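DM from R.C. (forwarded with permission)

"hey, sorry to bug you on a friday — could you get me a structure for this? deadline for the figure draft is monday and I only need the backbone to look sensible"
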Amino acid sequence: MPHFAGGLPDVTPSKEVKAVGGGGGCGSQGGSRLRSSSDGSRYTRKGVVLPRSSSPVLSNPKSVLKRPVSTEELQRPGGPYIKRTFTIVGDAVGWGFVVRGNRPCHIQAVEPSGPAAAAGMKVCQFVVSVNGLNVLNLDYRTVSHLILTGPRTVVMEVMEETDH
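My reply, with the result:
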């Protein structure tokens, strides 16, 4: 059964629900907001039903990251990363972002009209802390669980590459 981190399905690494027409890569934030019903079918805000078994939107996504980044590299003084802090208030669907990766996790997708985008979150940012807890050495499932089981308002610190 899928977990929901930020309103977009958080499913097994081999399958992920992606919105049709959404682009990938750093800076790309396309996609529609998906929800799930108790029978496993998915629907968008417009009410279009996308059954899980015959959905054309299932794919094996690639990471939005251009290259692997270590926790040491993120924390190196004078490195090409700056820390940003976001306070994101979840809505009825979630927070509007997807976390992926492992030691460190990164933001894989941000729903353009969701709470995370409104706060300034972008794809390719690395998650440093969730509600004051350092998560640099955790996998995305653990980080997603912290967000889902925590308060509706999430304070996240992220590292983002500086524009050269």
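R.C.: lifesaver. DSSP finds three helices and 13 strands in the chain.
me: no worries. Residues 28 and 55 are 23 Å apart (CA to CA).
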